C-alpha cells in the first residue's frame, strides 16, 4: 500500500517534470469537432480521419497515396478467389499495453459490419472472418472484389479484450439508454493516444512512445480545438493561439499569406461538388416533378455560369469540373471532363421544350457547415436559375438538419460533395451514388434514380479483378452518368491549410486529410 | 417651467366635473395629457430627443421608401449579379456607381440591403411591440378587473415566462419553428415567427402594469357607479382604467421597441432569424462577420452602424420620455 | 416568516414544474426522438422497438412524470449529437460560463457604481451628461457588435489579447478554472467586457436614480447641515443606502447574464453552456436544449426566490407583497 502511494507520488513528480520540459505541441484549429471517439459510431470522413491518428487499419496509404502494409504485413487471395489471407504484424501493442492479435481483427471487422453500424457500407463485400492462428486472418467476401485493400485502409482495429471488458463489442447504440464506452474512451495502436476529450472544446492526443513504426513526426501533443467560425479561426492563427488549421477560408488566404508568421498550403481537393435531382413523381411543393426529364437537367446545367462561380465565389482556387470524379481518380478520362457551356438562352429553350412552367418553384437544399463556400455558391446558382425563369427556394441549414431529409428522399434539388474516400477509385461514387438503391448499393442515391444499363456496368466492374478491364467498365459507366446528367458536377473544391512558422513540416494530401504523423514543429513550440 | 398659455387654451378640454357621464372626462383628460404642451415643450428643449427623433424619422422614411430609392431589390435573386460582387464603397478607388456603400460577396448592394434590412428590423420590432402590447393590455385588464381564478391563471403564466430569460424563449421558439416547418413556408413565415418569438416573453411586463392599476381603479367609486348603471365591462376597462396607466406603458413600449430591434438582430446574428436571401440587419452582420478579416470590412461595418443608430435613437427618445413623464424628476 | 418562506418555495416549485412541462413538450413533440436516434437503414420493427423501449407509447402524464423525476435527479438523457450524457456535457461546460458571468458581474459593479454616483452627484455637469449619453450608447450597442469590434481591435489589429477560447485551464476536481493561468486570465478579459457592457449601464443608471432620490432625503440634508463633509455624505451615507437595490438587481440579473452569455460565447468561441446550447439549436439536439432551458430557468428562479426572501427578511413589510416583479428583460 505504502509502496504504491510512493510510486504514484513519484509518477506525479515525474509528470510535473515532464510538463515543465518544452513540449512540441501542434494546436490544430479545425472547423468542427469530431462526432465521437468511436469511429464506428459516426459515419463521417472527418471523424474517421482524425481518429486514424489513434486507430489504424490493416493497410494504409503512404505519402503518395499508394497502399502499403500497416497492421498486416502481407496478404494473398486464396484459390477460391473470395477469401483473402492476411499475415499480421507481430509485436504491436495497443495503447493500454495489450498485444495485437488476430482475434482483435475479427472482433473489429464484426463490429464494423454489425447491422447497427453506420459504417457497414464502407466494407460492402464483407461476409465473415476467421482467425487462422494468432497472426493470420482469413476474410471471406461475397464474390470476387478488387477493392478490399482500399476499403481496409479506414477500417480501424480495436482491442477485443478492451471491448469485452467495457461492453463495447457492438457499435454505440444510444437507443439502449446507455452511452457507449468507446464514445469517450479510445484504445488503438496508432501513433497517438487520447489524453482527454471535451466535446466541442478540446481533444488532446499525446505521442504513443511504443508505436510499432518509426515516427517521422516530432510531436509530443496534438490539441484539436474546434473553432467553427471561420473569422475566429483566422484570428486565432494570426495571433498564434493555434498553429495549424486544415480549413483556412479561401476569402482570407491573401491576408493569411501576407502575414509574416503564417504560410498557406493550397491545393485542389479530390472532392467533386455536384448537384443532384429528385426522381420521384412530385416535388416537395406538390407540383409535378420535371427533373426526371434529361432535357430539364441539361437546361439547369447550361444556366449555371461555372466560370463565374470559379472566379468569384471560389476565388479562382477551384477546378471547374465536367466529370463526376477528379482527374487523379482511377476511372477518369479527359473526355468526361467536357463542359456544358454557359448558355442561358439555350437553357430557356430547353425548359420551354420540356414544358416546364414559367416560375416553377422547387426547394434547393444546401448545407451551411458543408463544403467550401457552399452557402455562397448556392445563392449564386439560385440567382442564375431564377434568371432563366425558375423560382428556386433556397433552404440552407446545418448538416444535421438536412441529412435526415436527404436520406429520406424529402429534398428536391440538392448539393453533394464526393471525394471517393477512402477507396480513391471511381467505383466509390458509382456504387454508392449512381447505382440503384438496393442493399449496400446506392446508399447516397438520394434522388432515387435507376438506370439498369448503368447498374449492369457497375456490377461488372465490382467483380472484375483485372485492373484495365475494370477501369474501362467504370469509365463507360461514368459516360452514362454524364450523358444522362444524373448529377451536375460543378467543381473540385479548393483546399487550403495554413500553419504558423512554428510548424516546419506539414504535407498536404489531395484527399484533404491531415496525416500528422508526418508533421514536424519547431522544437519547444 | 414656463408654460405656453395660448396653446394650453386651445388644447385643453372644456372644464368638466365628475357628475358628467363618466366616459368622457377621463378620456379627454388623458388624451390631453398625451398631447400635453408640457411634454411638447420638454421635447423641444431636449436637443438629444429632437436629434433622435429626426434620425429615427430619416431612417424610417428611407427604409419605407427603399423600393423607390434603392438601385437594386436585394431580395430578388435574379437582380443579383455575381460579377459586381465585393465592390468597395464609392469613395474607394475601385468603387463603382451606383454602389455607394459597396457590394457584398453575392453582388448585393450594401446600401439597398441596409435600407431593406432596416425596414424588416423596424417592422419586426414595431409589430412585436404592438402584439405584446395588445396581448399584455388585454390580459392585464382582464386579470385586474375580474380578479379571481382568471387573474391567477394569467399571472402565473406570466411568472413562468418571466422565470425564463427573454433571449432563451425567443431562441427556442424560432429554433423549433425552423426545425419543424417545411422549407417553402420557412421563407414566408420567418418574419411572423420572429415577431411572435419576441412578443411572447414581453407581454407580461405590460400586463403586470395594467393589472396593478386596474385593481386600484376597479375599486374606485366612479367605476362602481358605472357598474351600477350597467356600463359594459369592456367599456369601463377601455375608457377608464386603460388611460390611467398609459404613461408607464408608453415609456415601457418605447424602450421595448429598441429592445425588440436588438433582439431581432441578435437572433438573426445567431442564425435563427431572417434567412440570408431576405436579410435583416442582424443577418447582414452575421454574413459580414465571416469576411471581417478578408478586407471586406464594409459588409459588416455599415449594417452595424445602422443598427446601432436605430436602437440608439429609439433609446434616446425612450429615455427622454421617461424623464419627461416622471414627476419626481421634473 | 415561515409561512412566507413556504409560499415562496411553493411558488418556485410551481414555476419549475411549468418550465419542465414546456421542456417536456419540446422534447417530446419536436423532432421525433426515434427518428433522431436510429440510423437511416433501421427497419420499421427497429423503430417500433426503440419507441417501446424509450417509453414513448405510455400515457403523456406518465411520460411527463418520468421526465420530471429524471430531471430532478439530473438525468436529461443522451445528446443526439455527442452521444453523451447531457448532464455530463453541461457540467463540463458550466465552469466556463460561470467564471465569465462572475467576472462580468464584478466589472459591472466596479465600473457601474462609481459612474452612477458621479452622474448623480455632479448632476447636469458636462461629465455627467457625457456619461449619461454614454450609458444610452451602452444599452444600444448589440453585444455581438461590441464583441466583434473588441476582437478586431485588441486581438487582430493590436494582438494584445486572445480573441477566442479559454486559454489554459486547471482542473480542481470536476471544476476547470481559467483563473489560475496567465493565458486563462487573459482570455477572460475581452469576453467579460463584452458581456458586461449592458450590465454596467444598468447598474450605473440604477445607482444614479437611487442616489438622486437619497440625496434629497431628510437625513442627508441633516448630515450636511451638521457639517459632515460633502464627499463623505455622498460616498458613505448616500451610497450605502443605494447598495441594497443594486445587489438585488445584480442577483436577479445573473440569470439573465447566464442566458445572454450565449451570444458572447458564440462570438468568442467560449466553450461554455451557451455555446453548447447554440450548437444544440443548430443540430436540433433536443435533449440538450431541454436540459439547458431547465437548468438556466432553475438558476433564475432560485436567485429570484433568494432575493425575495432576503428582502423580506430585511424588510418585513414586504412579506405580504405578492406583486413584486421578477427580473427585467435582458
UniProtKB/TrEMBL annotation, chain B:
Q: Which family does it belong to?
A: Belongs to the binding-protein-dependent transport system permease family.
Cellular location(s) = Cell membrane
Question: Record keywords: Nucleotide-binding included?
Answer: no
Q: Where are the transmembrane segments?
A: 49-69, 120-148, 160-182, 188-206, 245-271, 291-312
Q: How is this protein named in the record?
A: ABC transporter permease
Domain ABC transmembrane type-1 spans what residues? 118-318
Primary place of residence?
Answer: membrane
**The keyword Transport belongs to this UniProt entry's keyword annotation:** yes
Classification via Pfam families: BPD_transp_1, OppC_N
Matching SUPFAM superfamilies: MetI-like
Report the InterPro entries cross-referenced here.
Answer: BP-dependent_transpt_permease, MetI-like, MetI-like_sf, OppC_N
The protein's matches in Gene3D superfamilies, at most eight in alphabetical order, are given as: MetI-like
The alphabetical list of record keywords is: Cell membrane, Membrane, Transmembrane, Transmembrane helix, Transport
Q: How does it sit in the membrane?
A: Multi-pass membrane protein
TrEMBL record, chain C:
PROSITE patterns with a match to the protein in the record: ABC_TM1
UniProt keyword Membrane present = yes
**UniProt keywords, alphabetically:** Cell membrane, Membrane, Transmembrane, Transmembrane helix, Transport
Subcellular localization, per the record? Cell membrane
User: Do the record's keywords include Glycoprotein?
Assistant: no
TM helices/strands, residue ranges: 12-30, 100-122, 134-161, 186-207, 242-264, 276-303
* Domain spans labelled ABC transmembrane type-1: 94-307
Per its UniProt record, what CDD domains does this chain match? TM_PBP2
Q: What Pfam families does the record point to?
A: BPD_transp_1, BPD_transp_1_N
Superkingdom of the source species: Bacteria
Membrane topology is: Multi-pass membrane protein
Q: Where are the coiled-coil regions?
A: none
What PANTHER family does the annotation carry? ABC TRANSPORTER PERMEASE PROTEIN, DIPEPTIDE TRANSPORT SYSTEM PERMEASE PROTEIN DPPB-RELATED
Q: Which family does it belong to?
A: Belongs to the binding-protein-dependent transport system permease family.
Q: What is this protein called?
A: ABC transporter permease
- Per the UniProt record, the source organism is Pseudodonghicola flavimaris
